[in-house]
Amino acid sequence: MAMPGRAVALRAMVLLLVPGLVFAEGIDTGDTAWMLTATALVLFMTLPGLALFYSGLVRDRNVLSVLMQCFAITCLVSVFWIVAGYSLTFTDGGALQKWTGGLDKVLLAGITPASAQGNIPETVFLMFQMTFAIITPALVVGGFAERMRFSAMICFSALWVLLVYVPVAHWVWGGGWLAEMGFMDFAGGAVVHINAGVGALVAALVLGKRKGFPNTPMPPHNLPTTVAGACMLWVGWFGFNAGSAIAADGAAGMAMLVTHIGAAAGSLAWMGQEGIKFGKPSVLGIVTGMVAGLGTITPASGFVGPAGALAIGLAAGVCCFWATKLIKRVLRIDDSLDVFPVHGIGGILGILLTSVFAAVSMGGLGLPEGRGIAVQFGVQAIGAVATIAWCAVLTFAILKIVGVVIPLRVSEEEETEGLDIVLHDERGYNL
């Protein structure tokens, strides 16, 4: 198709101004524009979305520490992704391709404005994938909030993203062994949510409980901030899931629709559970149900229809609600901000239910050719168990190694004073 005159003139002008620039052939400008937008939306989920969501949930003496952790992780992972993360996830690993990518694109070697990944520039694709690598360790922060040293958190996050996130992302999205099996994870049920949930749970167990847990009340200090962050997460999640179509097409449109349905259903289901159990629904509950619904629909978002999304969202609100009660009240594990019961359980549930509601008979878009629900369910279960095992073992090992070099948590006196003053010499509020 011939280019419109204005586009031809613009290209000629750019080439005159920047003679060395080469335009990639086959780039779809519509897809590229959507992916640029989706990339910004996913980064918006971490900064400011997750940062505000988490900062409102902690006590006022730790608000800056959580904001600092989310900001520092964003910077740290961005650099690590450029240095080696992208290459190890998305290039050919040769004889080790089933397990890891290669080093062909370390420091983004060979990537130019002319490089393409499908119908979009490779620069846009790698930036989009970078935002997923950023938010995953940032989610883990919720498991050890209010008690981990900042220096230990930096070392842990750097090792975790390279040794936990990158391998699993390669297995699922980089052509690794789970991709070869036909494992279905559209936007990160295993790669992001199971990884983050299990990582947070292991970190909570290794670091131990906060001083006073579970007998001392530790309510959120600023729910309006949490709700503001939750709203940003909901909007940003459209980039997270619909952007994973890597195109501006019907698949992206359906992914956006089912994402919204999952969030709404999860919120209502959580609110209903609270109404039944406590007699009053809470603001914290409805936004937590939203996050549960979004996390659970994530792996299924490119494979299911509206009816499936409704069922998945409702299941998320119920299952994740009771998982939070089990973790904190029965098992008494101090996962500070409920990362495992919301993201971990939601990710596992979403991965398994994808095999059910992706079937055409259940209103979905179809399973891999020749497969029934039972066979695909088995594949999904293998992927979930492998992710849990890998993440649990490596997270434990990383924490123990970092702990030999740097004390993982602050002292009881420092914890009482608050991480804002102890670690950053600043206060979130001066009232």
Strand-helix topology:
Elements: H1 5-17, H2 29-57, H3 63-90, E1 116-117, E2 120-121, H4 122-144, H5 150-173, H6 177-181, H7 189-207, H8 223-242, H9 250-278, H10 283-297, H11 306-330, H12 339-357, H13 373-405, H14 412-417, H15 419-424
Antiparallel strand pairs: 1-2
Total beta-strand segments: 2
Helix fraction, binned, reads 55-70%
SSE pattern, N- to C-terminal? HHHEEHHHHHHHHHHHH
Number of domains: 1
* Strand composition percent: under 5%
Count of runs of 4 or more consecutive helical residues: 15
CATH class: Mainly Alpha
Low-confidence stretches: 6-23
CATH architecture: Orthogonal Bundle
Largest sheet: 2 strands, antiparallel
Indicate the mean pLDDT.
94
Structural class: mainly alpha
Strand order of the largest sheet: 1-2
Query: What is the CATH homologous superfamily assignment?
Result: Ammonium transporter AmtB like domains
Overall 3D shape = globular
Distance between the termini: 63 Å
Estimated radius of gyration: 22 Å
Task: Report the CATH topology name.
Answer: Ammonium transporter fold
